[in-house]
Specification:
Elements: H1 4-18, H2 30-37, H3 39-52, H4 61-73, H5 80-109, H6 114-132, H7 134-147, H8 150-163, H9 167-177, H10 182-194, H11 201-210, H12 217-229, H13 235-263, H14 265-292, H15 299-322, H16 341-345, H17 348-364, H18 366-369, H19 373-379, H20 387-390, E1 406-407, E2 413-414, H21 419-425, H22 427-473, H23 478-488, H24 494-508, H25 512-517, H26 530-542, H27 547-615, H28 630-635, H29 644-671, H30 675-716
Antiparallel strand pairs: 1-2
Helix pairs in contact: 3-5, 4-7, 5-6, 8-9, 8-12, 8-13, 8-27, 9-10, 10-11, 11-12, 12-13, 13-27, 14-15, 14-27, 14-29, 15-29, 17-22, 21-29, 22-23, 22-27, 22-29, 22-30, 23-24, 26-27, 27-29, 27-30, 29-30
Length: 717
């Protein structure tokens, strides 16, 4: 005897057809659309499938179900077994490479690098964790990107269904006009029906909404209200239900963002203290610490700790905060749709930035270039100079060297320790900061300007839409309505759009649809806005069903776009304090502290240099009142100290890394995932933070080094 589910499965399609559903040929685009959109994911898929076919590992049923859900969300056509296989192989390969590297160093130096072996093991474990959890991160990224388009998605479906009560056609309309990635999700709904996974769009949609029930319940609830409108017998109640669905998601987004603004304050404060302040202050102790432990702590260790481990820690903490960001709010424009996208994708800015910044990088390497004889000899230069030799008569009695390389106990050269070398090292992080800043500025300047102009245009366009809807509601033909709106919007940005449409109609004899969307002369070409394009598409679609239908559609869009703008403004106001605090910490406090730490390192080097010079005097009696310093100097040998030159470079690069991580976090918190704005803000933040860091470091190096020299000089006199 057939069950209820069997009956529903058998007659579901027939029931839906009776309320207006029909099969569509929309799905053939899905696979190509997915391939074009997710090239990185495609590479991950190929690796999983290739290795998973050779070695087969299994997960527990519970873990397998969890991973499968993540894979489905990220549109990955792989099995959970293949993901764990790739993770294990990645671990083994990383550990093998690390082990071979340490053994190679041992064979050359006859010293086993325990620290690097440990770091290799830790790196291997991290690689395993990273690869194994990649589906989870891809799913979270997908949710974050897709959630920014939830409100427009509901808007498009609601507006379409107001004049045509057909769920399938409404979802198809939304998929065609939405931007990636939610457009891919909606296309997959049709694909699943075509391949026989589900018999109707409603079944496919209901299954898809289950993925959002925990993350964005307001999105699922809004869609269920839209589905229920299909069964409303009264037209007014049907429209009312559709209106309610949009209000549900607007209210849900606003409430969740309110909660998010309260919850992220403490994590962001902890992030700044643990990830920025404490590491920076810890750097101040490293020069002396390296001396006290007999030189066991080398400059390359500092680079590994402060430019690999700690940035990863900061990135991980930031990611945890961002993944908690609720959906439904954020930037919805897709960068690739902008006609000037080629500027963003171009490699030319990188080449120009490299040509301009590479000379600065070379200046930073001068201490080492001066030690190369085939460079200095032809030019008649020395390997090093005294400060007194190049100070134009100042510091005439100074015996401080500019670069000041030392000889270690094993005969190797260490350093440089001189103040000139430390100052020159500032050019290395400066060149890197300017390289990225100039490149990103060239890539984003025109695109950001166009986006800002488009936003201003869209704000005015909502009012113009309302006027256009009123004209159509009065029975004015669309061809004439555009001319009247153009005459009443004099002095506004939207006036030129309506004037151009009217010109195409009157002079070129085009239809309304052709006047807007003609590939050569259509008005939409000159106004690349998703809101304008969608509004006009709804107009051309709904005007076929009557002027009153078109009028209601346009006025609905106008009303709800205004509501979305209001919510966006309120949310930006709520986040303003958090964003401002993080930005000030990133561009002011962190560079300021880091610059002072560099100055302290230079001062310690100057003190140890002077103490070492004292021990070279013929007798300790010449050191007026200092007592015996030989024992002290033996403990604090400068050639065992981490050279301030490398210390500064590590700190400078760390400031750059912090700017990259926190800028991405700020943009995501404020407006969702937005690569264009992220690069634009990076161009500004990198310059601001680096300029302050360089100025503070240079001032601290000069001031503290001179104070140390004067103080010790007076003691010896």
């Amino acid at each position: 005897m057939p069950t209820t589910e069997d009956i529903l499965r058998k007659y579901g399609a027939k029931i839906e057809s009776q309320i207006g559903e029909s099969q569509t040929q929309f799905t053939h685009e899905y696979q190509q659309f997915k391939q074009d959109m997710l090239p990185a994911n495609s590479r991950y898929q190929r690796w999983c499938q290739a290795l998973g076919s050779i070695i087969k590992l299994k997960l527990s049923p519970k873990e397998e179900q969890k991973v499968q859900k993540q894979l489905s969300m990220a549109h990955l056509d792989v099995t959970p077994s293949q993901t764990i296989t790739l993770a294990v192989i990645a671990f083994l390969l990383t550990f093998l490479v690390a082990t071979l590297s340490v053994l190679s160093i041992f064979l050359v130096t006859e010293k086993f690098q325990f620290l690097f072996f440990f770091l290799g093991l830790v790196t291997s474990i991290f690689v395993f964790y990273y690869v194994y959890t990649l589906p989870q991160r891809l799913a979270n990224i997908w949710r974050l990107k897709a959630s920014s388009q939830m409100v427009p998605a509901i808007l498009y479906v609601v507006v379409y269904m107001k004049h045509t009560s057909n769920l399938e056609k409404a979802v198809e309309f939304a998929a065609r006009n939405l931007e990636a990635p939610l457009a891919l999700d909606f296309r997959k709904l049709f694909w699943d029906v075509e391949v026989g996974k589900f018999s109707t769009i409603k079944q496919s949609l209901d299954h898809y909404l289950e993925n959002w029930r925990d993350y964005a319940p307001e999105f699922a609830e809004a869609f269920h209200l839209i589905e229920s409108s299909l069964f409303e017998p009264d037209e007014s109640r049907r429209v009312q239900t559709l209106e309610k669905s949009l209000q549900v998601i607007l209210d849900g987004v606003y409430e969740k963002m309110l909660k998010y603004t309260r919850e992220i304050r403490a994590p962001l404060t902890n992030l700044y203290m643990l990830g920025i302040i404490l590491p920076t202050l810890g750097l101040a102790l490293l020069p002396l610490a390296s001396v006290l432990i007999g030189g066991a702590l080398k400059w390359n260790h500092i680079f590994v700790i402060f430019n690999v481990i700690i940035p990863f820690f900061v990135f991980y903490m930031t990611s945890e905060v961002l993944f908690k960001r609720p959906g439904g709010h954020g930037e919805t424009s897709v960068l690739e749709l902008n006609p000037d996208y080629y500027k963003f994708a171009s490699k030319k800015p990188w080449i120009i930035a490299f040509i301009l910044c590479f000379p600065l990088f070379l200046i930073g390497t001068l201490p080492f270039l001066f030690q190369v004889e085939f460079i200095t000899k032809p030019l008649g230069l020395q390997n090093d100079y005294l400060v007194s030799e190049i100070a134009f008569g100042l510091f005439s009695e100074s015996d401080i060297k500019i670069f000041d390389f030392k000889q270690a106990e094993d005969g190797s050269t260490v350093g440089p320790y001189g103040p000139g070398a430390i100052l020159l090292s500032l050019f290395i992080p400066l060149s890197l900061a300017l390289f990225f800043s100039l490149a990103y500025k060239m890539k984003t300047k025109d695109l950001i300007k166009a986006r800002n102009e488009t936003r201003l245009l869209e704000e005015e366009f909502t009012n113009s839409l309302f006027q256009l809807g009123n004209r159509l509601g009065d029975g004015t033909p669309a061809e004439i309505a555009f001319a009247k709106v153009a005459s009443t919007t004099q002095g506004q940005r939207t006036q030129s759009f309506f004037a151009l449409v009217n010109q195409n109609i009157q002079q070129a004899g085009m239809s309304v649809e052709e006047a807007i969307f003609n590939k050569k002369r259509g008005a939409i070409i000159f106004y690349p806005s998703a809101i304008i394009a969608t509004s006009m598409q709804i107009l051309s679609e709904s005007v076929k069903k009557g002027l009153s239908v078109a009028a209601r559609s346009l006025m609905s869009i106008s009303e709800y776009v205004k509501n979305m703008h209001k919510i966006d403004e309120r949310l930006h106001d709520l986040l303003a304090e958090v964003v401002s605090d993080m930005k000030s910490n990133m561009t002011f406090l962190a560079p300021l502290l880091a610059g002072i730490v560099v100055g302290l390192g230079a001062m310690i080097a100057a003190i140890l240099n002077k103490l070492q010079a004292f021990t070279q005097l013929e007798s300790e009696s010449e050191l007026a009142g200092l007592g015996s310093l030989s024992d002290i100097v033996t403990i604090f040998e400068i050639n065992k100290m981490i050279p301030p030159y490398f210390l500064q470079i590590a700190i400078g690069i760390y400031i750059l890394q912090v700017a990259f991580i926190l800028t991405a976090a700020l943009v995501t918190v404020d407006s969702g995932r937005d690569p264009l704005r992220e690069r634009h803000e990076l161009a500004k933040n990198l310059k601001r933070s680096m300029y302050l860091y360089i100025a503070t470091a240079a001032l601290a190096i000069g001031t503290l080094s001179v104070l140390a020299a004067v103080a010790l000089g007076s003691m010896a006199s």
